[in-house]
Amino acid sequence: MLKQAHAISEELIEWRRDFHMHPETGFDVHRTAGIVADELEKMGYRVTRGVGKTGVVAEIGAGGKLVAIRADMDALPLQELNESEYKSTVENKMHACGHDSHTAMALGAARILAKEKLNGRIRFLFQPSEEAADEEGKSGAVRMSEEGAMESVDYVIAQHVDPTQPVGTIAINAGPCSGGVDSWYGIIKGKGGHGAYPHTTVDPFYLLAHVIMALNAITSRRLDPFTPAVVSIGSLNGGFTENVIPDSIKITGTLRFTTQEAQKQIHDEIKRAFEIAKTLGGDYELKLEIGAPPMINNEEVSNLIEAVGKDLLGADNVQELHKSLGAEDFGSFMAHAPGAMYTLGVQKSGHEGYLLHHPKFDMDERALPIGTAMLTETALRFLKS
To answer: What is the CATH number of domain 2-176+294-384?
Structure first.
């Protein structure tokens, strides 16, 4: 399978560089999705366009088990600072998270699988808006799932590039691998007035100080210390001049968790923290927005990916996945079928310090056939198992 993937290396690089030069964000991935759908139709796939707004679902084979392979297509609203021949041609948009390569490698896997005699079905899920959500707070994985993209799927797999690991390696393990993510939006309400007469006001900054203390104590004093979780404040906006106490202050933030129990407890504790504003004579508004669930790799799926990695790359090149509370909406697909995501080493010489979401992020393109082979061989083994 590695030989087959290396045989199409030039095509993989061409796809990846084209997507990199023409990044699209959120659900606005019309050009990318159009190229993907056109290529898949040429390969003989049954293609459905516009799933989850701008996603592409493509299937091949018949009967038997159904394995889904997911690839995200969207870029980030970021100005690229690289000077490569394939740098972004779109101002303030860049593939700084490697989704250009995810799409290219999935297309490569589709090309190889189209020529295989399948003992079942393969479904590709080319997803928009992994990095963002729509006006209802729903990401691309959620939207595609709502429109039946995961119907009848037995297993679902995905990969994500990792610039901290060398080419020729993968990382995988079962269990929690990334956090679920929700957002919260609050307004602390007081009574404004002149800065020289604070006693005639209900100072929202004073209220806010106590709320912030309570928010920061949630993970350290309210949750079990062995429960991975984060509550972070992301923005604070209030006031308009130095000698006027405002009526209100806006505050927003994020929370991360690995279990539904922790998610519920954090929601309750955030509400409790904002109640302090009432206790001190003010008021508040609070909105909690549900995001992606945690990504918990299934043991059976993880074990098979690990076995494929050892066979293709050697046991020494299969590592344990570094766990984090960074968000990844692949968990929304895994809510419908057992699945797992592994990471693919793509570290590029001279770019070691530039991690995902950095304006100078880039990858070593020698990793493209490796990721392609991993996706292809894993899918085939599921169908044969």
So the answer is: 3.40.630.10
Three-state secondary structure string covering 36-59: HHHHHHHHCCEEEEEECCCEEEEE
- With a CB cutoff of 8 Å and minimum separation 6, the contacts of 325 are 178, 179, 228, 229, 230, 256, 257, 258
pLDDT of residue 137: 85
Convert the pLDDT of each residue in 109-165 to its tens digit.
999 999 999 999 999 999 999 999 899 889 999 999 999 999 999 999 999 999 999
Give CA–CA dist 15/200, Å, rounded.
65
Indicate the CATH number for domain 180-290: 3.30.70.360
Residue 188: which of 170, 210, 169 has the closest Cα?
210
Burial of 22 (0-12, 13-18, 19+ CB in 10 A): middle
Residues 48-95 have pLDDT tens digits of 999 999 999 999 999 999 999 999 999 999 999 999 999 999 999 999
Alpha-carbon separation of residue 148 from 62, 85, 86, 145, 154 (angstroms): 18, 39, 36, 5, 14
Same fold, 2-176+294-384 and 180-290: no
Q: Is the dihedral of CA 40, 53, 162, 330 positive or negative?
A: negative
Where do the structural domains in the chain lie, given as residue ranges? 2-176+294-384, 180-290
